[in-house]
Structures are given as structure tokens and as C-alpha cells.
Automatic annotation (TrEMBL):
Sequence similarity: Belongs to the 2-oxoadipate dioxygenase/decarboxylase family.
Enzyme class, broadest EC rank: oxidoreductase
Entries under InterPro entries matching the protein: HGLS (IPR009770), YdcJ_bac-like (IPR047869)
Single GO MF descriptor: dioxygenase activity
Organism, scientific name: Pararhizobium antarcticum
Protein known as: 2-oxoadipate dioxygenase/decarboxylase
UniProt keyword terms in alphabetical order: Dioxygenase, Iron, Oxidoreductase
Highest taxon of source: Bacteria
Gene3D superfamilies: Uncharacterised protein PF07063, DUF1338
């Protein structure tokens, strides 16, 4: 998919080159970080894609997509309601969930389902629904191999290869639209996102997102490379101890598309949908930490709202940093206030400790027997996602919708419930604590 996308969207290749360069510079300047990454991640994969995104049109597409991702060990985590932010979709992220799977490859796909129910124009809703009902976004072989994988609990190597190349077809760009120019304009006038979902044969991947070790540097250097960054970096400010997720993108490009008119002739037009993004991740926050994050972000946006043209970006960054002062910026501080999730492990001293020391985690840490490391946030942030959507749909695209989260409906359409991210991180933390305590309890007296 990465190769296909670089080929289809050359600016994305440029972004990848910039990210690779900045990451190499960061690692050269910081041997400690380099060593830590060498121990915990695979350095050679540091600049590779961490996520991408698609937008689906119908419940049937969503539930089939779930089955396709399941073949690759990717499961739906989290529910994101974007209606509050003026985008008529709700979403989840398909991703690996186990520690081993995440280490091997943490690639996720942010997957949105169009909500025609939020479109006021009834006639348009019916027409869009009819167009979507006719398309088939999966190849017959992809469906057949998915069924085979479900039946036998996996695929052999030859089938797996075929599966990947067939599944890739679903994400491909189509430069011939599914609709007439007139219909495209009707859809587009209702909302640009509706045109993007309904007008094409399939849910083209609309961006890929490599990991950067210095998002501020990449954001600053994008213009030097001839790519236009969105106005601001979404998410928390720059910090010593990174929290959650920071992300930014270059603005979607206008691409040539042809439309078949009612009289059968082909007409040239264009469509704007595809872009490139970068991300930098920090610690997963507890519900308490997340509430504090949301409060501080809201507070900063009361002082200054980021302007779409970037004219107040410097002031916005400053207001954001100031608003986040109350959020502790040390791992011990974050832990003391129960704001983030940590993985606990025995120190070298802990590994040779005698049994019978305290059963209290704080004592064990104070004695130098147990250490804690931040658990990385693997999910997404609805306010940030809305900012990414918005800057790539065109800045006139924001629309008022009544906030109407409908997780139950989403899960019904998906065909399963989504994993609750907080429960998941808490489970990882609790398991690591139990492992430390068990090991110490069984140490030789
Ligand atoms: C998805 C936007 C959300 C992110 O990184 O938050 C997203 C889209 O534009 O379809 O990818
Ligand atoms: Ni994204």
C-alpha cells in the first residue's frame, strides 16, 4: 500500500523522504534516544507508516471490511463521533491489539462510515444510497479468501500473498468517477465528504502516516520541500514527556478525475481528497488524564482558535503550551496524579531481590526494585481527527450537525462491539504489575 500510494501521490514520497531525514538527524543528535529505540522498537522501521484512513459508504461495506482486517489481525478499537465537529461520519480504528503484534507492526486504519442519516435533503439521501448500494468495493477473490480464512482459521502463504494483493485493490484510486458531473456537484454541494465517498468505485486510501521523532521539525520544513502543511499541529503541545498523539498533514491535492455525463461522453474534472500525514505518539492517558487533556485543550481554544490559513499559528502554539502548564511534565508526576498508564517491570536489583519485600508498588519503586515506563497511546483523538478532516476537505466544509453519537448503531453495522481503549490499557498495566508482584513473591527467600 505504501508503494502504491507513493506512486499515486508523489508529494507523499517527498514527505517520506523528509521524515526519514529528520528522524535520522534526531537519532544522530540523541544517542540515548537511539539506544532506547534500539532496545524497544525496530530502528529500521522507525520511519514507516503507522496509520492510514478510509471512508466507507454502507453498513455492508463496514462489516465486510471488519472481516477483511480480521484476517490480518486487526480489530476495531474505539468509537469516534465526528458529527459534533461538522463531519457526517462516525469511525473506529482497526489495529493489532496484543503487545507482540503491535511491536511487529502497529499499522492501523482509521475507518469512517458515512452517515447519510445526517443529511437533510431526502432526495439526495435516497440517490446517494442507491449509488452506494450498487457498487462492490471488494474483489470476488478477496471475499472468497476472507471466507476461507474464517473457515480454516488463517491462510497459507500462497493464499496470504493473493489475499494481500486482492485486498489492496479496495484501497486503490479511481480516476474515473462513478457518477455524472451533475450528480458529483449535487453531492459536493451537500458536503465534500459525501462526494468523496459516493462518487467513486471504492474507498481509496486517503492518506498514509509515517512516524516522526520530531513533528515540529517536519512541520517547519515542509514548505522547503514544496509541500503545504496544514495550519497547526493537532493535539497536545511540545513537551518533555509526550502525551497521546500529535499529528499534522500536508493539504490534500487537487487531482484530475473524469465523469461520465448523461449523454455518455466523458468530461474532465477534478477532486480533492488525498494527502499525507505524520504522527508522533506519547503516553496513553487514564480517563482522569484524558479529562484533564480535554479541559486544557478546550481552555486553549477559548483563548485562540486556530485559523485555517495559519495566520495565528504562532499565537495558537503559545496559548496551547500555556494552557497545558497544569499537566505534569515528568513521568513520576504523571504517575503520581494517576493521569497515565505505565508498564511495570523489575529492575536489575529487583530481579535478584529476596522475597518478602513489600507488596506495595510505591514501596517497591522507592526501594529501586520496580521501574515504570509509559504505555504508548495507540489510538486517535476526535478533535484532532476533525482538524485533519477539516483541513483536507477544504476550510469551507465545516457544517453544523446536531451532535448525535450512535455507537450502538455503528456496532450493529460493524457486526461486533469495538474494544474500549481505556479498559485495554488498564489491562496491560494491571498485568505488568501482577507479573512483578508474582516474580517477587516467588523469589528465593
Ligand atoms: C480521517 C481523518 C482522521 C487521524 O489521523 O486522526 C485521521 C479521514 O480524513 O478520513 O486519520
Ligand atoms: Ni490520519
Amino acid at each position: 500500500m505504501s508503494a502504491m500510494y507513493r506512486n499515486e501521490v508523489p508529494a507523499y514520497g517527498t514527505l517520506m523522504a523528509l521524515v526519514t531525514k529528520v528522524n535520522a538527524g534526531t537519532l544522530a543528535a540523541d544517542p540515548t534516544q537511539r539506544k532506547r529505540l534500539e532496545e524497544t522498537d525496530q530502528l529500521e522501521r522507525i520511519s514507516q507508516e503507522r496509520h492510514g484512513a478510509i471512508r466507507l459508504g454502507t453498513p455492508q461495506e463496514l462489516s465486510m471490511m471488519r472481516r477483511v482486517f480480521a484476517v490480518m489481525g486487526m480489530f476495531p478499537v474505539g468509537y469516534y463521533d465526528l458529527s459534533t465537529a461538522g463531519v457526517p461520519v462516525h469511525s473506529t480504528a482497526f489495529r493489532p491489539v496484543g503487545d507482540a503484534a503491535l511491536k511487529r507492526n502497529p499499522f492501523r486504519v482509521f475507518t469512517s462510515l458515512l452517515r447519510l442519516d445526517l443529511i437533510a435533503d431526502e432526495a439526495l439521501r435516497a440517490d446517494a444510497g442507491a449509488i452506494l448500494d450498487k457498487r462492490r468495493i471488494f474483489t470476488a477473490v478477496a471475499v472468497e479468501l476472507t471466507e476461507k480464512a474464517e473457515k480454516q482459521g488463517g491462510l497459507d502463504e500462497a493464499d496470504a500473498e493473493r489475499f494481500v494483493s486482492e485486498a489492496l485493490e479496495t484501497f486503490r484510486w479511481h480516476d474515473r468517477a462513478n457518477v455524472s458531473p451533475a450528480m458529483y456537484h449535487r453531492l459536493h454541494d451537500a458536503h465534500r465528504l459525501i462526494a468523496d465517498v459516493v462518487s467513486f468505485k471504492g474507498p481509496h486510501i486517503n492518506h498514509l502516516t509515517p512516524r516522526t521523532l520530531d513533528i515540529d521539525a517536519v512541520q517547519a520544513q515542509m514548505p522547503d520541500y514544496g509541500i503545504a502543511p496544514k495550519a497547526i499541529v493537532e493535539g497536545p503541545p511540545t513537551r518533555d514527556c509526550p502525551i497521546l498523539l500529535r499529528q499534522t498533514s500536508f493539504k490534500a491535492l487537487e487531482e484530475p478525475v473524469s465523469f461520465e455525463a448523461e449523454d455518455g461522453s466523458w468530461q474532465e474534472g477534478s477532486h480533492t481528497a488525498r494527502f499525507g500525514e505524520i504522527e508522533q505518539r506519547g503516553i496513553a492517558l487514564t480517563p482522569k488524564g484524558r479529562a484533564l487533556y480535554d479541559d486544557l485543550l478546550n481552555a486553549s481554544r477559548k483563548i485562540i482558535r486556530p485559523a485555517a490559513d495559519g495566520s495565528n499559528a504562532v499565537d495558537y502554539d503559545k496559548a496551547l503550551s500555556e494552557a497545558f502548564r497544569p499537566f505534569p511534565d515528568s513521568w513520576a508526576g504523571i504517575r503520581a496524579e494517576d493521569l497515565g498508564y505505565f508498564a511495570y517491570s523489575l529492575t536489575a536489583k529487583g530481579k535478584t531481590a529476596k522475597a518478602g519485600s513489600s507488596e506495595h508498588l510505591d514501596d517497591l519503586i522507592a526501594e529501586g526494585l520496580v521501574q515504570f515506563d509509559p504505555i504508548v497511546y495507540e489510538d486517535f483523538l476526535p478533535v484532532s481527527a476533525a482538524g485533519i478532516f477539516q483541513s483536507n476537505l477544504g476550510d469551507d466544509a465545516a457544517q453544523e450537525f446536531t451532535a448525535s453519537p450512535n455507537q450502538q448503531r455503528f456496532e450493529q453495522d460493524l457486526g461486533t462491539t469495538v474494544l474500549n481503549e481505556f479498559d485495554h490499557y488498564q489491562g496491560i498495566e494491571e498485568a505488568s504489575i501482577a507479573e512483578c508482584l508474582t516474580a517477587l513473591a516467588h523469589a528465593e527467600a
